[in-house]
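Worked example 3. Consider a protein that binds iron/sulfur cluster.
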Amino acid sequence: MHYTGTIWRPPYEASSLLLQVTAGCTHHRCKFCTLYDDLPFRFKMSPMEDIESDLLEAQLWGTDPVAMLSARLQGLPRPEAVRRVFLVGANPFVLTFRRLKDIAELIHQYFPMVESIGSFARITDVALKSDEQLTELHHLGYDGITIGVETGDDQALAFMDKGYRSQDIVEQAGRLDAAGISYNFFYLAGISGADRGVEGALKSAEVFNRTHPLLIGSSMLTIFPESRLYQEIRQGNWAEEGEIEKLAELKALIENLTISTRIVTDGASNLIQVRGNLPEDQERLAGSLDRLIRNADENALREYRVNLRHL
Ligand code: SF4
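Given these inputs, the predicted complex is written out as structure tokens:
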């Protein structure tokens, strides 16, 4: 398989076939982000020949007797039929409609049983497609895309250089709804900065309540020295939320969401694992966060954060 650099995928895409169609990020400007710093370039599209050869290779895993025997000898489980493909790269949804269509057709050619195709996307990637194109992408299988919206707090979005406003989140999510493409959001607790965590959560809840994400995956901001944000802090332009404040922010977000969605905190950056459906589990989740906050030791939580070397 042609995998370049660190491959990131949402935890819930663990059983999807990961197909690299882009590498890096077209935006590459968010101040806190170091995810694709290991690449010697900013963004690249994979050649169609590489994509096709990866599909062929993946197809062989499931059908080639030698590959199956080798997996068995290594104690690996028998490969399951591929039902979902997740396109790898920071924002493959930026690709032109034509290229996304070609990729979907190739996927269906090699894996006729595939039911859906996911990818990471930026809000600005959705804006590049017409309504008709989004609808056709839905018919081609694109569904359950994951958008790192991070927050609905305009002040934080602007400072972090995210490249869109909260109103854009509402508009583009509405266009995905209309096209039938479901989506998940990533939220980033801590992005609003010291003493603004709960305010950022309230603004985010207000924005998210006007959208329909299947799931909101929340992470906690972890600042690495290579990031532009680290320099902003050193220059005194921004201050980080404490760990207890990040937990209070997450609690405020959960308490103020009025939509039906699933909320999860997966990944190493989180100090607590939260999993539940809203609104049914709202009280339970807020209650457990409340208990944690009341008994939390900021120094101990901080120690976890500073010792985190990789997300
Ligand atoms: S859009 Fe995502 S991958 Fe790209 S710089 Fe921002 S956070 Fe990083």
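Take a moment to read the result before moving on. Residues 25, 27-30, 33, 35-36, 90, 122, 148 surround iron/sulfur cluster (CB under 6 Å). The two ends are 23 Å apart (CA to CA).
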